[in-house]
Design goal:
The structure is a single chain. The chain is an alpha/beta fold. The protein has 2 domains: 180 residues, Aspartate Aminotransferase, domain 1, CATH 3.90.1150.10; 236 residues, Aspartate Aminotransferase, domain 2, CATH 3.40.640.10. 40% of the residues lie in helices and 14% in strands. It has 15 helices and 14 strands. The strands form 3 sheets. Strands 1-9-8-5-4-2-3 form a 7-stranded mixed sheet, with helices on both faces. Strands 10-12-14-13 form a 4-stranded antiparallel sheet. Strand 4, helix 8 and strand 5 form a beta-alpha-beta unit. Helix 2 packs antiparallel against helix 10 and helix 5 packs across helix 9.
């Protein structure tokens, strides 16, 4: 079969060596995507004079945010949805309402954004870091099970980049050990595992609507659950400890005010209509890019899993093999991609526990709590193999073709680029 990458493109000089970049700013999709529907929705809230959202769940359900909650929950197949101020608050709320208490151990991913772990000590628990699967970058079920002790109360798994972990095995582990399972779906708006929405496999699923996410509202979040009991606790803990059955000025739990405003609900209601179409477009372009990368070799997509029946994206993850690029260090390869005008990066750069907030954390005896934490797969992924591209790039077919072309010509000129990188390193050293 003839290559889908034109020969003249492969032979042309890469931008890092002085050639013309393959990607131009006009190829990038505008983000966020918005227009008159969002403006009209905001004006309706303005003119209504009802900008605040409070009261009973029945009263909350009548507003625009309540309508969004139901629509988003339905898209994912959940009975309950509760909007909150942001994705971080959603995760803390799920843990608190789920019964995590001071001293409880909660197994968390080592490969994610930091709040997937900081949420645990913020509710009094102790974060325990699980390692990652090198083929998918997701939390390893084997690592989770090996970390369970008599103090373990919950498991937090992340759909990192929008790609689900092995939910079949992880849900079995949680049920076997009678542990709370919280899905951090901040990256996974629209994702499905075997036809069932992300956020509905565990006891609770938390999502973020921060500006960079696939469903943006500036800030905001939601907690999904299929449990009526948990839904009642979520409502109470996000609403200053109120109970629906008691008076408005009766407070029964020590709790936050995490209510979302109607402004954000108005934006989200319109953005939800857009994200459903965008998700399918991103999936098509991601499949195209995966095919191209597998043809080129050396920079491979994450392992394809037929159980992922729909995938939302935060970023598109790839596995870099330096040996296919003349031993070029990953950092030099990323710079070569960026020189081509491409939005390439390395995810969050390091395992969560290597952040200062955890490196400085001490246990009850004054010892550094995470001094002996070892996650070799996550360490290697961050240092050597993980390359990412933001989800908005998947809205542009032109940019996807440019990305594939850039990888091909970087590979064709890998010895020269690797030598250039070594020379710069010697000068810097």
């Amino acid at each position: 079969m003839p290559s889908a990458i034109p020969t003249h493109l492969v032979r042309s000089k890469p931008a890092i060596l002085g050639g013309a970049p393959l990607a131009t700013p006009r190829m990038r999709a505008k983000w966020p995507v918005f227009g008159n529907p969002e403006r009209d929705a905001l004006l309706r809230v303005l003119n209504s004079g009802k900008w605040w959202r409070g009261g009973t769940r029945v009263e909350m359900a009548k507003g625009v945010t309540g309508r969004f909650e139901r629509a988003f929950a339905k898209w994912h197949g959940a009975r309950h949805g509760l909007c909150v101020t942001n994705g971080t608050a959603a995760l803390e709320l799920a843990l608190r309402a789920g019964g995590v208490e001071p001293g409880d151990e909660v197994i968390v991913p080592s490969l994610s954004f930091v709040v997937s772990a900081t949420a645990v000590p913020l509710v009094g628990g102790i974060a325990v870091f699980a390692d990652a699967d090198p083929e998918t970058f997701q939390t390893s079920p084997e690592s989770i099970e090996a970390l369970i002790t008599r103090k373990t109360r919950a498991i937090v798994v992340v759909h990192y980049g929008g790609y689900p972990p092995d939910l079949d095995r992880i849900t079995r582990i949680a049920k076997k050990h009678k542990l709370l399972l919280v899905e951090d779906c901040a990256h996974a708006q629209g994702t499905q595992w075997r036809g069932r929405g992300a956020g509905t496999w565990g006891d609770a699923g938390t999502f973020s609507f921060q500006m960079s996410k696939a469903l943006p509202a500036g800030e905001g979040g939601i907690v999904l659950s299929n449990s009526d009991v948990l839904a009642e606790k979520l409502y109470s803990y996000h609403h200053l400890g109120r109970l629906e059955s008691q008076g408005f000025y009766d407070f029964h739990r020590l709790a936050w005010n995490l209510r979302m405003t109607e402004w954000q609900g108005a934006i989200l209601s319109e953005q939800l209509k857009r994200v459903k179409k965008q998700t399918l477009a991103k999936m098509r372009n991601a499949c195209l890019l995966s095919d191209r990368l597998e043809e080129i070799g050396g920079l491979l997509p994450l392992k394809r899993d037929p159980r992922i029946t729909r995938r939302g994206y935060y970023f598109y993850g790839m596995r870099y093999d330096a040996s296919a690029f003349a031993g070029m260090p990953k950092a030099a390869f990323v710079k070569a991609l960026q020189a081509e005008g491409l939005p390439a990066g390395s995810g969050y750069g390091r395992p969560i526990q290597n952040n200062p907030v955890f490196q400085q954390m001490r246990d009850e005896r004054g010892r550094l709590r995470y001094a002996k934490t070892r996650t070799p797969n996550a360490d290697r992924i961050c240092a050597e193999t993980q390359i990412t591209m933001g989800h908005t790039a998947l809205l542009s077919r032109e940019l996807i073709e440019a990305f594939a072309g850039a990888v091909a010509r970087i590979k064709a000129h890998a010895p020269q680029i690797a030598a250039q990188a070594r020379g710069k390193a010697r000068l810097a050293g």
